[in-house]
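Please, structure for the following, as tokens.
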Amino acid sequence: MKLINKTLRLSTKGSSHIIDITDDVKKIFGKEDVSEGMIHLFIPGATGAITTIEYEEGLIDDIKDAWERIAPRHGFYRHDRGRGDDNSHSHIRASLIGPSLSVPFKDKKLILGTWQRIAFIDFDTSPRKREIIVQIIGEK
């Protein structure tokens, strides 16, 4: 069994920017000498999240609209009032999805559904540089 650690670096726009990272993950994974196992993705930080979605423009807009209903940007948040911040909604949104995702692979292929893509969502209020930890656990 092999354990490989890599880092994926992204520049984001903030404000619920959804980025399809599937091909980036495949590129990192494709360079490694493993054919079966698990890829684990983790975002350090409290305002980013990783999930899977059908990466389609209409659905992306629907997801952004849903997040605005669940945790509105201009809602009343104690964190914002107490600290003078403006990103409580970002923390709430990110915590509901979570900072990590595991995807199995076999025969050097990620096991994803037909339309399923790996997405990073930056919920913070401004553009950021992000690093996603990519941990590959596998064997030949």
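The beta strands are 2-12, 17-20, 36-42, 48-54, 100-106, 109-110, 116-122, 128-139. Helices lie at 22-30, 57-70, 78-83, 88-97.
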